[in-house]
Amino acid sequence: MSTKRTAHIISHTHWDREWYLPYEKHHVRLVKLVDTLLDKMDQDANYRSFFLDGQTIILEDYLQVRPEQKDRLTKLIQDGRILIGPWYILQDAFLTSGEANVRNMQIGHQDAKAYGDVSKIGYFPDTFGLVGQTPQLMQQSGITNALFGRGVKPTGFNNTVSDGDFESSFSELVWEGPDGSQVLGILFANWYSNGNEIPADKEEAKAYWERKLADAEKYASTGELLFMNGCDHQPVQLDLPEAIQTASELFPDTTFVHSNFNDYLAAVQRSGKQELSTVKGELRSQRTDGWSTLVNTASARVYLKQMNQLGQSMLEKVAEPLAAFAHVLKVGEKYPHHLFTYAWKTLMQNHPHDSICGCSVDEVHREMVTRFDKSRHVAEAIIDDSKQAIADAINTFGFTVTGEGALPVVVFNTSGWERSGVVSIEMDALRLYFRDGYTLEEASALAKAADLTGRVLVDASSQSLPCTVEDLGLQFGYDLPDDKFRQPYMCRKVRLTFEADKVPALGLKTYAWVKKEAELVTSSLFTNERVMENAAIKIDIADNGSFTLTDKKNGRTYRDLGVYENVGDIGNEYMFRQPDGETSLTTSALQAQIRVLQDTAFQASVEIVHEWSIPASGDDMLDVEQRDLVYYPHRKAQRSTRMIPMRIRTVVSLSRSGQGVEIESSFNNQAKDHRLRMLFPTDLTAQTHHVDSMFEVVKRDNTPASEWENPSNTQHQQAFVDVSETGTGLVVANLGLNEYEVLRDGRNTIAVTLLRAVGELGDWGLFPTPEAQCLGEHTVRLAIFPHNGDGAQYEAYTAAYQFQIPWTLAQTGIHDGQIGLTYAPLQWEGEGLAFSSMKLNEASEDVLLRWYNMRSQHAEVKVSTQLPQQNFYKSTILEIQGERLAVEADGALTLPVGPCEIVTIGIQR
């Protein structure tokens, strides 16, 4: 009898390392699960296959406790019965950087290969939406599929609608990225637990399979039906072979097989009978009612997002390029691959969706803070070693003719573009080591008596520059040499602040603080105490603390910028819910205290203080509704009538060379159940806007789809959001503020969430999370960059990307060296391209450079280097050596870059 359909039963467990329980409590359960799995597989050959959730960290977690089981586990992997990889962890897509996702794939492959084959499955079972570049990332990883649970709404064969951008007629679809890359998409239309706990009892099995087969066929395009035998932290179903035998006897027209993803995907591709829908770009559940998109995890526990932004930037945008820089100069220690792997793994342990999204119990997020610190401390150690090795390789003898007692300072620009900006360094004006015979009293007295007068800052051409000097007094310090015991000292510390001008991309520029007679011309960026102005923009502060920005390049004025908005939030860590009928509070009618904070030739800053009162919390009904598990869209709670003070201190700064204005906002939150945002009305005519996402500047609609019912249309961002019309636009950049909304208020206002305070986890039960109220001190940073469109927006995007990256400075001495006072090891150019990373490949020690095309049109990148190299080659995100690329007569490489392409170039040395 010929069969009409095949039921592919894939055993798995979706393993959230931490969520509604702290990590170690889930960890204990994981050890029990894998113990059981190994015993079952060893004892029963009919239990054929198990998918280990696509993340190799499960192996680390298990073997940390059960190292003696490694051989058993390895054998089952090598026999193809346990499938592992391709990721290190199952990350959130929108809250982790592009490079973090690349490292995740690289380390997942590296770790999986140590055990056996890497499972080439694009696995995203519970990711809270997917970025548009996923198909390209999969293809570059040798993966031709993506299996996911969220983002697309299928219609089903019997209710097929015309193809739309974000709809699929079936659970199988073609997913296309902005560059044209395509993968076979498999939507878990009935979730990744639709084959969970299959009955072995005949009567129960008959009812179970009649329902389950019908549910799968409702969406499937072929007779190859997928049943996921597992769920969150699901134990192994030990009687699955018996349950499959029962099903086979009950439904002879169906072949039931204990399958795996490789066999299932091959069967789908062989059996494709229907024309599949092509879904393009981001999968964010745009064609839903908007209530269950989980987008507001972007603003849950904002402090985690800020720590993540800093941690990612320190690793990928500072430590990696500096260590690569030091390596190619052959100075300092070897490129520390082992330390980078450890730091990335520690950081990525915070990247699963229930972790970085801030939607777990409080114990989970306390542990995350420690991991963020640990990863950052490793990055800082690598940075300190690398920058000092490079600084000590600079020939600084030229400063000896400029003045006496020169103290050189090196400014590193680890962004991919030339950069100017205000920098600051704490440096030693005098250092006295105890090893030289000084007592503490003698060293302190000499350091205190040091003469700091008569010094100026000079550049490589001996030009004197404006600089502020803050005497920090006596400080104790120590060195930790590689070849001797620690070396303590006393020093006289100063802080120098100045504007570094045109520091080359991925390079350095050296200055010196010297004794020299010089008369600096003083100037100010203030035209009055409320107005700051440079060559590009003008800022005018209003009585209520908002400001007007005038773009002097095109005359466009943006008004009422920087107003604060506060509303109640009776939702949870997953979703925002404003109380019905509530009127937003704003600072637009609140008188602010305003004063000049800094007035130098290179920077102007204004301090704005709001003394505000907001409701203390939700009302008593909120607690009742939480305990009764009332679904958050149906809640009727309001805000308390009790008001408490909220003091907000805002610093607005403009630098002499700045193309935008920077904003720092500090406040002590003592209120609960509310959301705080900053508003930037654009008054631009636009139906769409652009936003930074993973390896993409994506275009999104200002107005949601017709199916959308949620009054809120908040969305994810990474570095910035841009609202533009022909000839003008406004970019609002942020540091770790991943939620924004373009308001439908007639002004196309960009609203950026600064804080969201809630008291429960949400989802499937009551899990109180008092620490998600985020009580205490907070500081957030933003920047605004106006532009005139027509290509200038990419310059604004560059400024927004550079805003993400801390400057790096180092003090060095007077010495000979192999490089000049201004230096960069390589140069590149490419209109519309964003630079992403510079690092070394562990296997080859080749330098790897990565860019992505921000535009949907062809471009090219031209790369030249002062370094001796054997050849250039084009690679992928897995950074495997490819075919040699031809270079021009001058040794430079010009490479075409496709629309929205992610391009990686290797330099073999």
From TrEMBL:
Pfam families xrefs: Alpha-mann_mid, Glyco_hydro38C2, Glyco_hydro_38, Glyco_hydro_38C, Glyco_hydro_38N
SUPFAM superfamilies cross-referenced by the UniProt entry: Families 57/38 glycoside transferase middle domain (SSF88688), Galactose mutarotase-like (SSF74650), Glycoside hydrolase/deacetylase (SSF88713)
Cited PANTHER family: ALPHA-MANNOSIDASE 2C1 (PTHR46017), MANNOSYLGLYCERATE HYDROLASE (PTHR46017:SF2)
Protein name listed in UniProt: Alpha-mannosidase
Glycoside hydrolase family 38 central domain boundaries: 297-372
Sequence similarity: Belongs to the glycosyl hydrolase 38 family.
InterPro entries, alphabetized: Gal_mutarotase_sf_dom, GH38_beta-1, GH38_C, Glyco_hydro/deAcase_b/a-brl, Glyco_hydro_38_C, Glyco_hydro_38_cen, Glyco_hydro_38_cen_sf, Glyco_hydro_38_N
EC number: 3.2.1.24
Organism: Paenibacillus qinlingensis
Gene Ontology MF terms: alpha-mannosidase activity
EC supergroup of this enzyme: hydrolase
